[in-house]
Specification:
Blueprint: E1 2-6, E2 11-12, E3 15-16, H1 26-31, H2 33-48, H3 68-78, H4 92-106, E4 112-117, H5 122-134, E5 139-143, E6 157-167, H6 168-172, E7 184-190, E8 193-198, H7 199-203, E9 211-217
Antiparallel strand pairs: 1-6, 2-3, 4-9, 5-6, 5-9, 6-7, 7-8
Amino acid sequence: MERVKELPYFYIDGLVGGNQDWFLDPWMHLGGCGALTACDLCLQQAIYGGARGLYPYDLPDSPDHLLRRDYVHFGMRMKRYLRPRHMGINKTSLFVEGFQNYLADCGETGWRFDALQGSAPVSEAAAAVIERIDAGVPVPFLTLMHRDPKFEDFNWHWYIVAGYRIDTDRAGGTSGPDSACAGISVKAITYGEETWLPLDELWNTGYEERGGIVLVQPGR
């Protein structure tokens, strides 16, 4: 039996969310994932969370008809707050600081942030992701280096998690302190695509420095 929760999202040119490949700016093309994760979060909350002030361009009647050129302009605007750098935005605190500055300039107040570092047990990550998705808020997710090659596209990368799936039968067939997490997958959105990933494998990267997640509570 499965329990599935997926947040509504937006589409541009038939792709889900934004895409770094659209940017001619070399820094944004190569290292703009933090800024674009913030852009995707803003757009999703502007459309579905009522936080209209987060997006400085016109919103169409349908979330399927957003303009690519507006998203690219938005990404370049967000670059001022979450600028790509040599080591990337490699800490959750850097993301929170930049995004808070953007909110302040938008006049958005009352937003609260917490972060869970990758050193925390996967059970805590699962509980946090489920709580935020159930509240209707996407989760900015940072993965640093990962030993498993199947996560190669997520190395040193920010992306959005916008859903979860719990396979209770699989969870029930495992043992250990985090056994329930073996049946949890998350829906990652990046580069205009969505991918379901097993959370326990994604979280346990095999390295001491692991990244983490940002837990956003909108000011509404």
